[in-house]
Design a protein that fits this description.
This protein is of the alpha/beta class. Helices cover about 40% and strands about 15% of the residues. The chain has one domain: 3-Layer(aba) Sandwich (Rossmann fold), CATH 3.40.50.2300. The chain is globular, with a radius of gyration of 15 Å. It comes from Citrobacter arsenatis.
Protein backbone atom coordinates (compact mmCIF):
# COMPACT_ATOMS: atom_id res chain seq x y z
CA UNK A 1 0.00 0.00 0.00
CA UNK A 2 1.20 3.47 -0.86
CA UNK A 3 0.54 6.35 1.52
CA UNK A 4 0.89 9.99 0.52
CA UNK A 5 1.52 12.61 3.20
CA UNK A 6 0.32 15.88 1.77
CA UNK A 7 0.68 19.51 2.76
CA UNK A 8 1.18 22.78 0.99
CA UNK A 9 4.95 23.34 0.89
CA UNK A 10 6.32 19.80 1.35
CA UNK A 11 9.29 21.06 3.35
CA UNK A 12 8.57 20.07 6.97
CA UNK A 13 5.60 18.05 8.22
CA UNK A 14 4.97 15.87 5.20
CA UNK A 15 8.71 15.18 4.91
CA UNK A 16 8.90 14.25 8.61
CA UNK A 17 5.91 11.93 8.15
CA UNK A 18 7.23 10.32 4.96
CA UNK A 19 10.66 9.53 6.37
CA UNK A 20 9.31 8.33 9.72
CA UNK A 21 6.62 6.16 8.10
CA UNK A 22 9.16 4.50 5.81
CA UNK A 23 11.54 3.99 8.73
CA UNK A 24 8.84 2.14 10.71
CA UNK A 25 6.91 0.51 7.86
CA UNK A 26 6.56 -3.24 7.54
CA UNK A 27 7.11 -4.89 4.18
CA UNK A 28 4.50 -3.93 1.64
CA UNK A 29 3.93 -0.43 2.99
CA UNK A 30 5.55 2.68 1.52
CA UNK A 31 5.02 6.38 1.88
CA UNK A 32 5.82 9.44 -0.12
CA UNK A 33 5.15 13.11 0.42
CA UNK A 34 4.20 16.03 -1.75
CA UNK A 35 2.85 19.54 -1.69
CA UNK A 36 0.28 21.46 -3.66
CA UNK A 37 2.75 24.37 -3.84
CA UNK A 38 6.14 22.85 -2.97
CA UNK A 39 8.80 25.20 -1.65
CA UNK A 40 11.48 23.44 -3.66
CA UNK A 41 13.58 22.66 -0.59
CA UNK A 42 13.37 20.61 2.58
CA UNK A 43 13.71 22.68 5.74
CA UNK A 44 17.19 22.07 7.22
CA UNK A 45 15.71 21.59 10.70
CA UNK A 46 13.54 18.75 9.40
CA UNK A 47 16.57 17.01 7.96
CA UNK A 48 18.63 17.57 11.12
CA UNK A 49 15.84 16.22 13.34
CA UNK A 50 15.38 13.11 11.23
CA UNK A 51 19.11 12.45 11.21
CA UNK A 52 19.23 12.95 14.99
CA UNK A 53 16.48 10.32 15.31
CA UNK A 54 18.45 7.88 13.17
CA UNK A 55 16.01 8.11 10.26
CA UNK A 56 17.37 8.17 6.73
CA UNK A 57 16.84 11.36 4.75
CA UNK A 58 17.97 9.83 1.46
CA UNK A 59 15.42 10.69 -1.19
CA UNK A 60 13.78 13.46 0.84
CA UNK A 61 13.07 16.42 -1.40
CA UNK A 62 10.26 18.91 -1.88
CA UNK A 63 8.02 17.82 -4.74
CA UNK A 64 4.66 18.52 -6.29
CA UNK A 65 1.70 16.21 -6.02
CA UNK A 66 1.60 16.44 -9.81
CA UNK A 67 4.85 14.46 -10.16
CA UNK A 68 4.28 11.47 -7.91
CA UNK A 69 6.04 8.25 -8.93
CA UNK A 70 3.05 6.12 -7.80
CA UNK A 71 -0.65 6.55 -7.32
CA UNK A 72 -1.38 6.57 -3.58
CA UNK A 73 -3.91 4.28 -1.95
CA UNK A 74 -4.19 6.52 1.11
CA UNK A 75 -3.73 10.30 1.35
CA UNK A 76 -3.15 11.86 4.75
CA UNK A 77 -3.05 15.64 4.84
CA UNK A 78 -0.93 17.08 7.64
CA UNK A 79 -1.62 20.80 7.32
CA UNK A 80 -2.52 22.65 10.49
CA UNK A 81 -5.10 25.34 10.81
CA UNK A 82 -2.86 27.93 12.46
CA UNK A 83 -2.33 31.18 10.58
CA UNK A 84 -5.29 30.41 8.28
CA UNK A 85 -3.34 27.71 6.47
CA UNK A 86 -5.26 26.15 3.61
CA UNK A 87 -4.86 22.42 3.27
CA UNK A 88 -4.88 21.03 -0.26
CA UNK A 89 -7.35 18.33 -1.21
CA UNK A 90 -5.96 15.50 -3.29
CA UNK A 91 -8.25 14.67 -6.16
CA UNK A 92 -8.49 11.01 -6.89
CA UNK A 93 -10.16 7.80 -5.77
CA UNK A 94 -8.20 7.27 -2.58
CA UNK A 95 -8.84 6.81 1.11
CA UNK A 96 -8.38 10.22 2.76
CA UNK A 97 -7.76 11.42 6.29
CA UNK A 98 -6.52 14.58 7.96
CA UNK A 99 -3.82 14.55 10.65
CA UNK A 100 -3.36 18.28 11.20
CA UNK A 101 -0.10 19.50 12.70
CA UNK A 102 0.93 23.12 13.10
CA UNK A 103 3.72 24.19 10.75
CA UNK A 104 6.99 24.44 12.65
CA UNK A 105 8.49 26.50 9.82
CA UNK A 106 6.16 29.35 10.78
CA UNK A 107 7.40 29.51 14.37
CA UNK A 108 9.56 32.46 15.30
CA UNK A 109 11.63 33.02 18.40
CA UNK A 110 14.81 31.59 19.79
CA UNK A 111 16.55 28.56 18.34
CA UNK A 112 15.25 26.57 21.30
CA UNK A 113 11.65 27.64 20.63
CA UNK A 114 11.91 26.85 16.93
CA UNK A 115 13.57 23.49 17.60
CA UNK A 116 10.83 22.70 20.12
CA UNK A 117 8.19 23.32 17.42
CA UNK A 118 9.93 20.87 15.07
CA UNK A 119 10.25 18.28 17.84
CA UNK A 120 6.57 18.70 18.72
CA UNK A 121 5.49 18.20 15.08
CA UNK A 122 7.74 15.14 14.76
CA UNK A 123 6.54 13.66 18.06
CA UNK A 124 2.87 14.02 17.09
CA UNK A 125 3.44 12.53 13.64
CA UNK A 126 5.53 9.66 14.99
CA UNK A 127 2.88 8.79 17.60
CA UNK A 128 0.20 8.76 14.91
CA UNK A 129 2.31 6.63 12.57
CA UNK A 130 3.07 4.19 15.39
CA UNK A 131 -0.67 3.99 16.13
CA UNK A 132 -1.30 3.38 12.42
CA UNK A 133 0.98 0.35 12.48
CA UNK A 134 -0.85 -1.13 15.48
CA UNK A 135 -4.06 -1.30 13.45
CA UNK A 136 -5.20 -4.62 11.95
CA UNK A 137 -4.12 -3.39 8.53
CA UNK A 138 -4.91 -6.58 6.59
CA UNK A 139 -8.49 -6.53 7.89
CA UNK A 140 -8.94 -2.79 7.37
CA UNK A 141 -7.80 -2.99 3.76
CA UNK A 142 -10.99 -5.00 3.15
CA UNK A 143 -13.22 -2.42 4.90
CA UNK A 144 -12.49 1.10 3.65
CA UNK A 145 -15.18 2.68 5.82
CA UNK A 146 -13.67 1.24 8.99
CA UNK A 147 -10.15 2.06 7.77
CA UNK A 148 -11.10 5.72 7.29
CA UNK A 149 -12.74 5.80 10.71
CA UNK A 150 -9.55 4.46 12.30
CA UNK A 151 -7.34 6.92 10.42
CA UNK A 152 -9.59 9.81 11.46
CA UNK A 153 -9.58 8.58 15.06
CA UNK A 154 -5.77 8.57 15.08
CA UNK A 155 -5.70 12.10 13.67
CA UNK A 156 -8.18 13.37 16.25
CA UNK A 157 -6.95 11.65 19.38
CA UNK A 158 -3.19 11.77 19.17
CA UNK A 159 -1.49 15.11 19.42
Amino acid sequence: MNVLFLCTGNSCRSILAEATFNHLAPEGWHSMSAGSHPTGHVHPRSLALLQHEGISTIGCYSKSWESLPLVPDIVISVCGYAANETCPTYLGLVLRSHWGVDDPARVTGTDEEINAAFIKAYTILRARIEAFFTLPLADLQKDKTMFKAELDRIGNLIG
